[in-house]
Design goal:
Enolase-like, domain 1; 11 strands; single chain; 3-stranded antiparallel sheet; 2 domains; alpha+beta; 33% helix
Length: 235
């Protein structure tokens, strides 16, 4: 039985494989605004699993969630064994149980690393105009049309390998240069004061997974040491 290509399983998705959801919308000074976030569709998740592990080597199952909602398990055949990773979601207001099933599967896919990089996205403003492709409503019920923003360069599939190299270089910079900072050094990370060494120790697993978080820590290390990280990616 061939080994699973985890890098391919977790590879970035093409823009047309993503969808965007409005998180917040309202009006200010007579103009409508909307903030949105990207997510992977279940169809894209299924296609990724089919392509990387094969249609016969993965399966999903659903169970009632505690306190309502639903949990989903995605199982992949690894060698001679089946490995299952679970996550769950509440039923949604719009599609009820169907929406809960969909959300639970997306979260279970993240447990395998599929689309996990999307958690590094900041909320972005949609382009609101009368010819937008999608419809939305403000918190006051006013309808509007909108288009999603462009994906940042780091999130495009052809930048995947470059981003991985950049991330590894940042981790090495944090390990080498960050270790030379004083124990009591306090810096600002995410807009809050943090003890730098304690923050790195306590959040190392997240720093290793999240490019944007690693970048924030690099910025903090640069600030207190005066040493500069040399980016590998083109601006």
């Amino acid at each position: 039985m061939s080994e699973i290509d985890y890098a391919a399983l977790q590879a970035y998705f093409a823009p047309d494989e993503l969808e965007w959801r409005v998180q917040h919308a309202g009006e200010k000074n007579g103009r409508t605004w909307a903030v949105c976030v990207p997510y992977v569709t279940n169809r894209a998740i299924q296609s990724r699993l089919d392509e990387v592990v094969g249609p016969a080597r993965w399966k999903n199952e659903f169970r009632p969630g505690p306190g309502g909602g639903v949990v989903c398990g995605i199982s992949i055949q690894v060698g001679d064994d089946w490995v299952t990773k679970w996550d769950g979601a509440d039923n949604t207001d719009v599609e009820g149980v169907k929406g809960g099933l969909s959300a639970a599967m997306k979260r279970a896919a993240v447990q395998w690393g599929i689309g996990r990089y999307l958690y590094a996205f900041d909320e972005a403003f949609a382009t609101v105009h009368e010819n937008g492709r999608f419809r939305g409503k403000t918190r006051d019920g006013k309808s509007f049309r909108w288009d999603p923003p462009e994906l940042p360069a780091w999130a495009l599939p052809h930048r995947r390998n470059a981003v991985l190299r950049e991330h590894e270089a940042m981790l090495e910079f944090i390990r080498e240069v960050g270790s030379r900072t004083e124990e009591e050094m306090v810096v600002s990370i995410g807009g809050a004061p943090r003890n730098l060494k304690s923050y790195i120790r306590e959040n190392w697993s997240s720093i290793k997974e999240q490019y944007r978080l690693a970048r924030a820590v690099v910025d903090a290390v640069e600030e207190v040491t005066g040493e500069q990280f040399r980016p590998l990616l083109a601006a």
